[in-house]
Write a structure and sequence with these properties.
heterodimer; A: four-stranded antiparallel beta sheet; 11 strands; 56% strand; B: mainly beta; four-stranded antiparallel beta sheet
Chain lengths: 117, 114
């Protein structure tokens, strides 16, 4: 079966420090990968998605970046964190549209709490 | 472009009462529709999904949802709510034409009174 792992689960970082959140998917190949953010009391905001190695699409301009160095690995980074970067970050994956798992079905990781102080 | 509306930000029910969470979507063709649940501090868990076929979909944890094309709705129901159902619920719509990006509603927070 497919599983998704993201870490760390919680992170407290000072303003101006770097960030690296990592996500890996197991049990599938060539997944679509996503990074979402949830600010307190708000809905989901799509930050980045990737349909293949090295292919990253950004949905929201900001000081965050994403990379996909391997097929099932997705990394969210920042060189200098802002207070406004605080929130709950969710990694997710889906199979290719029309695939055996019904394409477009997104499966989420457990999330990472980031507090910028 | 697709869109999703969850008109209720908060819903309060008593334990044992029935539940219906509303979801309305906008999409030009047959959509893929989803309901997710999120417990505090956790990721989103898929409750159920509709792609085609029977418009009444059964999901996990005793939930069901009904796709009504004429009303552009996909409401989530449960006949008897348990205290553990208190959570945030998200409706989402995906394009059937191969889009990779589903659209999520803002969520409905379910509060369960004992």
């Amino acid at each position: 079966s497919q599983t998704i792992h993201q870490w760390p689960a919680t992170l407290v970082q000072p303003v101006g420090s770097p960030l690296s959140l990592e996500c890996t998917v197991e049990g599938t190949s060539n997944p679509n990968l996503y990074w979402y953010r949830q600010a307190a009391g708000r809905g989901l905001q799509l930050l980045f998605y990737s349909v293949g190695i090295g292919q990253i699409s950004s949905e929201v301009p900001q000081n965050l970046s994403a990379s996909r160095p391997q097929d099932r690995q997705f990394i969210l980074s920042s060189k200098k964190l802002l207070l406004s970067d605080s929130g709950f970050y969710l990694c997710a994956w889906s199979s290719q549209p029309g695939g055996l798992l019904g394409g477009n079905t997104i499966y989420f990781g457990e999330g990472s709490w980031l507090t910028v102080v | 472009a697709q869109s999703v509306t969850q008109p209720d930000i908060h819903i309060t029910v008593s334990e044992g009462a029935s539940l219906e969470l509303r979801c309305n979507y906008s999409y030009g063709a047959t959509p893929y529709l989803f309901w997710y649940v999120q417990s505090p501090g956790q990721g989103l868990q898929l409750l159920l999904k509709y792609f085609s076929g029977d418009t009444l979909v059964q999901g996990i944890k005793g939930f069901e949802a009904e796709f009504k094309r004429s009303q552009s709705s996909f409401n989530l129901r449960k006949p008897s709510v348990h205290w553990s159902d208190a959570a945030e619920y998200f409706c989402a719509v995906g394009a059937s034409g191969g889009s990779y990006i589903p659209t999520f509603g803002r969520g409905t927070s379910l509060i369960v009174h004992p």
